Amino acid sequence: MSPNSSEKVPLTVIGGFLGSGKTTFLNALIREGIPEHSLIVVNDFGDINIDAELVDYRDDQMLQLSNGCICCTLGGTLAEQLAKAMRLADHPRAIFLETSGVADPARIADIAKVSTRLELAEVICLVDGSQARRHQADRFTGDTWHAQLYAATRILLNRLPSGEETHLTTLLRQLNPTARIEIMDRRVPDLVPEQHRSTPVGNGKPLYHIPVSRGGWKSVSLPMNAPVDAEQLQALLLGYRDVLLRAKGFLYRQDRSPRQLLQFSGDRVTWQPAAGSPGRCQLVCIGRSGERFDVLVADLQSLGGV
Ligand SMILES: Nc1nc2c(ncn2[C@@H]2O[C@H](COP(=O)(O)OP(=O)(O)OP(=O)(O)O)[C@@H](O)[C@H]2O)c(=O)[nH]1
């Protein structure tokens, strides 16, 4: 049955900083059950949309927006794509939009506010509690982090360090007096043994390499043709965590098969077996542009056999 075209379609915006848990939360929502015939929109900051591979949505109703952060190209891609989807006779019943980790969700929510076909259901902001003190104090990441929190109607706090609950909920309440604040997960993920982590992910779609640099942020995607020394790679990523905000990608390790999904966010590196056909191996790194970031990229290139 096709949805009634006179009814407004709810748009849920899922925002939050790089690595804050947006894709993990979106997958949990999909597992719990979203309305049939929903449209999922995912947008990574870089030109490679790794999130599109990581979202477990077995439907062709998925829109991948690349070319950088959607909130920077708002007038174009996103508004046009949503309008196109809404013009279809069999238009989506609900839309779930995962923003890039550097987007200001308020600018995206504005699309729903001016649309006659959409209504804003929620603006969710994921927060990695273990990184909150860092972002609060960091002049580079702080503005984005604050704007994301300010725009939220619901804040989901995960990886809450022990003893930080009062401090963090008070801080979040000061930054956004009206949003609902929920605590999701008190664990810090490094404590989860690797063999107990979730099932293989990703399907090995081809990936492309184009560096993007906007407003002090830089994103680069590196082909990783040779199997890497995992210890060396981890040490490199952690050693540059002052300028590296996020890394994720598919690659081979020297000591283990099959292809692995590597995730670096905050001060943690995790590995997970990647499903599907062998596929290309790429690592996407997002950080603060500058000489130090470029040195990291050169080191990663030599490690990955580029
Ligand atoms: N313990 C714990 N780990 C989490 C949680 N949510 C996400 N993670 C881990 O944090 C890392 C980043 O999670 P993602 O869901 O990819 O984060 P994201 O916000 O989509 O990342 P970007 O799209 O790159 O900005 C992954 O290694 C996840 O397993 C959580 O609630 N608890």
UniProtKB/TrEMBL annotation:
<protein>
    <submittedName>
        <fullName>GTP-binding protein</fullName>
    </submittedName>
</protein>
<dbReference type="InterPro" id="IPR027417">
    <property type="entry name" value="P-loop_NTPase"/>
</dbReference>
<keyword id="KW-0547">Nucleotide-binding</keyword>
<feature type="domain" description="CobW C-terminal">
    <location>
        <begin position="217"/>
        <end position="304"/>
    </location>
</feature>
<dbReference type="InterPro" id="IPR051316">
    <property type="entry name" value="Zinc-reg_GTPase_activator"/>
</dbReference>
<dbReference type="Pfam" id="PF07683">
    <property type="entry name" value="CobW_C"/>
</dbReference>
<dbReference type="InterPro" id="IPR036627">
    <property type="entry name" value="CobW-likC_sf"/>
</dbReference>
<dbReference type="InterPro" id="IPR011629">
    <property type="entry name" value="CobW-like_C"/>
</dbReference>
<comment type="similarity">
    <text>Belongs to the SIMIBI class G3E GTPase family. ZNG1 subfamily.</text>
</comment>
<comment type="function">
    <text>Zinc chaperone that directly transfers zinc cofactor to target proteins, thereby activating them. Zinc is transferred from the CXCC motif in the GTPase domain to the zinc binding site in target proteins in a process requiring GTP hydrolysis.</text>
</comment>
<keyword id="KW-0378">Hydrolase</keyword>
<keyword id="KW-0143">Chaperone</keyword>
<dbReference type="Pfam" id="PF02492">
    <property type="entry name" value="cobW"/>
</dbReference>
<dbReference type="InterPro" id="IPR003495">
    <property type="entry name" value="CobW/HypB/UreG_nucleotide-bd"/>
</dbReference>
